[in-house]
């Protein structure tokens, strides 16, 4: 079976090497300003949060949205209740650093740089681009790297979303002091998705952490199930960009309590 994650990580090595050649780490550090942990502030303010993802393509499903640019998606999300945005910078998702910078200029919301971090250079680069948070995937990092990169992100004023997929990943994440743990509902080898992955893994999680379910959320009912199960938020890409009315779907996922209120009034 094709290992999509393995292919992405292998190609990422060359991408990072080229980035270092174009802009050495010393120059990246000179260009960046420290962050202010904006993701933490957002999640402490509200009990439920939607991280809306600007995502144009999936390695498994191809082009997901032909009608909107990354900036247009960001503007719609920001206007319809998203707490935070996730912006891909990996080419497998048609992402790039330039798109991230455009969104940074466009919206005031905290931004997660969605990429496959395999080198601490990428953390400094993320902060230079204006990221408020980075993604650390437990599956592709050693336990030592996971802790090191978490502390590095914190030293730059950025939050880190530590992504897990199974019990082994969860155990690795829980050996760190990570505040945010994201349960990826997407099989990292086949890229198929189901929110059942989160529901099965939640019993192994530390409920004192902020728990976020990632991918596979296709409607407000999915979001409600995840919240009732103990999640503090969701990260949604495909479920938004493929919606018939992206703004309405964003609003529905961001404000699931309002949906419950409307049902009670009906």
UniProtKB/TrEMBL annotation:
Catalytic activity field: 1-(2-carboxyphenylamino)-1-deoxy-D-ribulose 5-phosphate + H(+) = (1S,2R)-1-C-(indol-3-yl)glycerol 3-phosphate + CO2 + H2O
Keyword Transmembrane helix among UniProt keywords: no
Keywords: Amino-acid biosynthesis, Aromatic amino acid biosynthesis, Decarboxylase, Lyase, Tryptophan biosynthesis
Family, similarity comment: Belongs to the TrpC family.
Name recorded for this polypeptide: indole-3-glycerol-phosphate synthase
Organismal lineage: Bacteria, Bacillati, Bacillota, Negativicutes, Selenomonadales
GO BP, one annotated term: L-tryptophan biosynthetic process
Cited CDD domains: IGPS (cd00331)
The keyword Glycoprotein appears for this protein: no
Pathways involved: Amino-acid biosynthesis; L-tryptophan biosynthesis; L-tryptophan from chorismate: step 4/5
Domain Indole-3-glycerol phosphate synthase: 6-252
Record Pfam families: IGPS
Uppermost EC category: lyase
GO molecular function per UniProt: indole-3-glycerol-phosphate synthase activity; phosphoribosylanthranilate isomerase activity
């Amino acid at each position: 079976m094709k290992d999509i994650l393995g292919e992405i990580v292998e190609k990422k090595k060359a991408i990072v090497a080229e980035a270092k050649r174009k802009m050495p780490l010393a120059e990246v550090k000179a260009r960046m300003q420290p962050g202010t942990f904006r993701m933490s502030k957002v999640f402490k303010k509200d009990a439920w949060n939607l991280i809306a993802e600007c995502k144009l393509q999936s390695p498994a499903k191809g082009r997901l949205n032909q009608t909107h640019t990354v900036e247009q998606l960001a503007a719609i999300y920001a206007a319809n209740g998203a707490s935070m945005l996730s912006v891909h910078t990996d080419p497998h998702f048609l992402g790039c650093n330039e798109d991230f910078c455009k969104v940074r200029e466009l919206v005031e919301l905290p931004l997660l740089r969605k990429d496959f971090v395999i080198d601490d250079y990428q953390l400094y680069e993320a902060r230079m681009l204006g990221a408020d948070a980075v993604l650390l995937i437990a599956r592709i990092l050693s336990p030592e790297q996971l802790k090191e990169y978490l502390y590095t992100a914190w030293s730059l004023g950025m939050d880190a979303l530590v992504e897990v997929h199974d019990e082994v990943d969860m155990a690795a994440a829980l050996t760190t002091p990570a505040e945010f743990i994201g349960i990826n509902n997407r099989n990292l080898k086949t890229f198929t998705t189901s929110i059942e992955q989160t529901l099965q893994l939640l019993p192994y999680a530390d409920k004192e952490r902020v728990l976020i379910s990632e991918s596979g959320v296709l409607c407000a009912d999915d979001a409600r199930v995840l919240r009732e199960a103990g999640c503090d938020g969701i990260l949604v890409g495909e479920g938004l960009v493929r919606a018939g009315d992206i703004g309405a779907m964003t609003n529905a996922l961001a404000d699931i309590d309002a949906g419950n209120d409307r049902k009670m009034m009906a």
